[in-house]
Design a protein that fits this description.
It contains four helices and four strands. The chain has about 120 residues and is α+β, with helices and mostly antiparallel strands. The chain is globular and about 45 Å long.
Length: about 120
Amino acid sequence: MTAVTTICHLDDYETAVSSLTGRTIYINRAPNRYLICPVVPLEAMGRVTASWLARMEALLATNRPPPALRRSVKVLSDVRSAADFAVALDQLLVTNFKEKLESSSISGMQRHLEQFH
């Protein structure tokens, strides 16, 4: 079960049992990628996404996240598997990063630093 993503993954982990709760803990072995828990509760995704989108829409238009980010959040409501979730979350995180990079001082700072290379 491997999804093609940039920053999320499904299968590079170890398991351990918590000495406090007795529950299984999933330990991410990939230091530069997010682990999608193998037992992610997908049935709750629609509710969580709807609540998140409603909160965004309740904001003043000037305070809402950009449309691309809101569309990426909406995609999360349609996930049916952990692989779907990994791809949707990956897109959400990449979209958010690109939006911040293009619309903030980070972009200007990068251009400034590139002049010195």
